Amino acid sequence: MANGAAVRGGSSGSNGRRARATLRDVAEAAGTSRSTASRALGGHGYVADHIRERVQAAAERLGYVPDVSARTLKGRGSGLVGVLVSDLRNQFYAELAAGVEHTLSAAGYQMVLVDDHSDDERAAAGARAFLAMRADGVLLTPVGRTATENLVGHGVPVAEMDRRSGVRGCDVVSIDNERGARLAVEHLIALGHRDIGIVVDETQWDTGRNRLKGYRAALRDAGLATPRRHVLDLSRSEGVGDQRTQLTAFFDGNSAVTAVFAANNVMAELVWQELKRRGADVPSSCSLVSFDDLAWMKMVEPGVTAVRQPVFDLGGRAAELLLARIGRDDAGRAGSVVLEPELVVRGSTVAPKG
Amino acid sequence: MANGAAVRGGSSGSNGRRARATLRDVAEAAGTSRSTASRALGGHGYVADHIRERVQAAAERLGYVPDVSARTLKGRGSGLVGVLVSDLRNQFYAELAAGVEHTLSAAGYQMVLVDDHSDDERAAAGARAFLAMRADGVLLTPVGRTATENLVGHGVPVAEMDRRSGVRGCDVVSIDNERGARLAVEHLIALGHRDIGIVVDETQWDTGRNRLKGYRAALRDAGLATPRRHVLDLSRSEGVGDQRTQLTAFFDGNSAVTAVFAANNVMAELVWQELKRRGADVPSSCSLVSFDDLAWMKMVEPGVTAVRQPVFDLGGRAAELLLARIGRDDAGRAGSVVLEPELVVRGSTVAPKG
DNA sequence: CTGTTAGCGCGTTCAT
DNA sequence: ATGAACGCGCTAACAG
User: How far apart, in whole angstroms, are the C-alpha atoms of residue B319 and residue B312?
Assistant: First the structure.
């Protein structure tokens, strides 16, 4: 909701701003009725050519811009699509949003972007706002069931990205996380590693959970054990400071570990810095693989081996799915797309010494 | 505009979705008139307590969500703020958007985000869309005068970020670019460098131009010359490939250069990679300073000395300025804020050898 | 305190 | 081919 202090849109402010031109103004200027002007500009129905031109000229001259609110009220659809992401400052979500925006704007839709900071409460508030503005659809990286349930319950087409809340009736576009994790871990195994650690996060959601699962599966398939202390789950940590502390303890207690799989870009950054801080040479004393390939990973020396996800595309595909549902006015059969990740081998992974 | 194919919002689709509850529904369910229901929910005017409760209960039960379109049409303000950035995939703009969103959502406004890809045409289209949706205000990183002029001409409060188009009547929040460039170059001079190159971009805008200016000024003040070949302006280059080529040529023809100032994060990345590609050791064979401090700059070895800009804050401040204008319904006296950059010294800069 | 009335700007009947 | 009239959902003014 707009701040209570918000004032009128454009009428009689003390400043000299003239009221925005309305269809009535255009009609009067062109000497026709409002309906005719509407048809002339909208391109529907019959309008004499010279009238049309006159109306268009008037509209141009007056700087007429049709009012979406009015159009929306008529039941036309708002042209707005709500997008809810967890953290815009995280490159992953920024790129996701960019992909969404790209597809949306190409289709003539506008993106309303809300950052929920992984907070279900804020996500719910965002959902309400989208409902209120009659968003034609909503794309989100779910942090809970609330938002999706509310939206779907109101008949708004929803597409979930990267994660799935489990709520039925919405499209889901995700990465094959288990497979990606396997790619990473199998790569390490192939190099000869046997003591492989994982630093993971957000295991309350399927994305993190599946990466952990893939890690375990790969080890199991290779006949390797997964000591509990090889798994560092930072999901319940309190702040970055706490994470660093736990990470330090993790390495202190795992001198046997020769390689680490960081289950997302945030974890990768954390691990990289911890490794650097303790003077552990990468890759000679510890190999590193990241899930999610960010720009810095190819800038550093050695480059970080990473599981590349088509993030921009992920957003684009989700938007496409959603737009298709909007176009069909069909809240029914929701689609599901799983995109394939790809391993990019760089210098951070080598055979263990010895 | 919404795709022409877009269909009705939520009435009689073939699916079973029930029409969204309207104020009338709530009123009927509560056994009152629409106005009373409106007051009860809005908290204005007089309403008997027991009636209020009954209405609120009904609203809750029906999952009533007020319709912004209708409210907007009444002249209430849309609660929407348009934001136009040049490239969401660039961390700089992503963080800027994040800062804007943070402030906006705290004030109860929604951010409509459009990526114009530095294209004036697309920016103009975005501006039209914002006008059409009755955005209460617009924040943008201008790529020309068109968008701002159109908006300001229509009486919409506008705040420009990072760059200034020169159009009067809008707020401007920027970084002291000349000062930042001086910080960078003076640092190099203090280290003993005399042949300092600059790789710059987007000199068609004040931001790039002022950084170039600061570079020149710092050299001049130190009594140093600025050979033309020490300045590489990539503004007119065609694609990244071309930029790389020019960069290679630049270093080939400037063997005397002992330090380079990269005028933004994109240039810094380019320079870093070129230096790496040609096996030039940083900093021993060439020092590097970047304008804009990204995450990777502290990950790499050596870390990149950078001019840090308060990007998130920049977005936040711009949003604050805009909100103040919206609150005052005042398109008049536009404000201007200049934020100070800060030099962060890391390993990429040392005294020249010899 | 409450209900009735009017109108925001637009598109869409339905008559002409 | 054009115009008059209605209503989308809501709130502000006015009666009661």
Answer: 11
B113 CA – D10 C1', rounded, Å: 27
Helices (H), chain B: 23-30, 34-42, 49-62, 68-73, 91-106, 120-132, 146-153, 177-190, 206-221, 239-252, 265-277, 296-299, 311-328
Distance, Å, A238 CA → D10 C1': 45
A158 is written with which tokens?
């929803």
pTM surpassing 0.90?
Answer: yes
- A346: closest CA of chain B, how far (Å): 15
Tokens of B232: 């590489």
DSSP state of B29: H
Q: Average pLDDT over chain A, rounded to whole?
A: 92
Give the integer Cα–Cα distance in Å for A314 and A308: 12
The 8-class DSSP code of residue A332 comes to: S
Average pLDDT over residues A36-55: 88
Residues 1-40 of B with CB under 7 A from strand C: 32-36, 39
Helices (H), A154-310: 177-191, 206-221, 239-252, 265-277, 296-299
Q: From residues 174-213 of A, which are strand C contacts by CB within 7 A?
A: none
Residue A331 confidence (pLDDT): 61
Inter-chain CB proximity A110 and B98 less than 8 Å:
no
What does the pLDDT read at residue B315?
A: 98
Running DSSP on this structure, what letter comes out for residue A45? S
Q: What Å value separates CA B56 and C1' D14?
A: 25
Question: CA A173, CA A161: separation in Å to the nearest integer?
Answer: 5
Residue B178 CA and nucleotide D3 C1' are separated, in Å, by 62
A73 touches strand C (CB under 7 A): yes
Q: Which residues contact B44 (CB under 8 A, 6 or more apart)?
A: none
CB contact under 8 Å between A63 and B113, yes or no, is no
Flag whether pLDDT at A198 surpasses 80.
Answer: yes
Q: Are A47 and A39 in contact (CB under 8 A)?
A: yes
A308-328 pLDDT tens trace: 999 999 999 999 999 999 988
Write b or e for each residue in B100-115: b if 16 or more Cβ atoms lie within 10 A of its Cβ, otherwise e: bbbbbbebbbbbbbbb
Question: Per the CB < 8 Å rule, is B78 touching A89?
Answer: no
The answer to whether the beta carbon of residue B22 comes closer than 7 angstroms to any atom of strand D is yes
* Contact by Cβ (8 Å): A110, A81: yes
Most confident of A55-59, A210-214, B64-68: A210-214
Q: How many CA atoms within 13 Å lie on the side-chain side of A97?
A: 35
Q: From the alpha carbon of A44, which nucleotide's C1' atom is closest?
A: C11
Cβ contact A150:A128 at 8 Å: yes
Out of A2, A76, A296, the one facing B6 most closely (by C-beta) is A76
DSSP strand pairing (B110-115 vs B137-140): unpaired
How far apart CA B41 and CA B39 sit, in angstroms, is 5
CB A115 within 8 A of CB B104: no
Residue nearest to nucleotide D5 (CA to C1'): A35
pLDDT band at A209 (very low <50, low <70, confident <90, very high): very high
Could A136 and B78 be called an inter-chain contact, meaning their C-beta atoms sit closer than 8 Å? Answer: no
